[in-house]
Amino acid sequence: MRDLSEIRLLIYDCDGVLTDNRVIVSERGEESAVFHRGDGTGIRLLREAGVRQVIVSTELNPIVEHRARKLRIDVIHAVEDKRQAVVDYCKVNGFPLEAAMFIGNDVNDLEAMRTVGACGCPRDAEPEVLAISHWISEKNGGFGVIRELSREILKSREESRG
Length: 162
What we know:
Elements: E1 9-12, E2 24-25, E3 31-32, H1 37-48, E4 52-56, H2 62-71, E5 74-76, H3 82-93, E6 100-103, H4 110-115, E7 118-121, H5 127-132, E8 135-136, H6 145-161
Parallel strand pairs: 1-4, 1-6, 4-5, 6-7, 7-8
Antiparallel strand pairs: 2-3
Helix pairs in contact: 1-6
């Protein structure tokens, strides 16, 4: 597995990673989702440590936009080709693909996951995603996956400094 201390950019799928992959729909058709506050803490700690983060989502959803804004990370949504979105984001922002890690959970994440230096997933990800992941969380999506990853990245950085 790639040394987590070398990760400079984390790319997250939203549904199934930051959420438990469910959506709540009201009788008026309004959607809601549940996010884990611990993930927000992990994202903040990583940001403070200089790790850039971005959410890449196929959905055009104000929930994702709102959450990303609150967490102070970038969001790219309404994406048809996640792999190309990752390549473009890295190029525009000066990140080598090898320094990026994609966290996904479903088959539409596979090509993006294969494009970067490392990839990971929640423990309840689809079998194809589990099969290629360098890092697998002990948590299901929406239940602190990013908090767990942040702990491991920060610990790895501390250990590499000696």
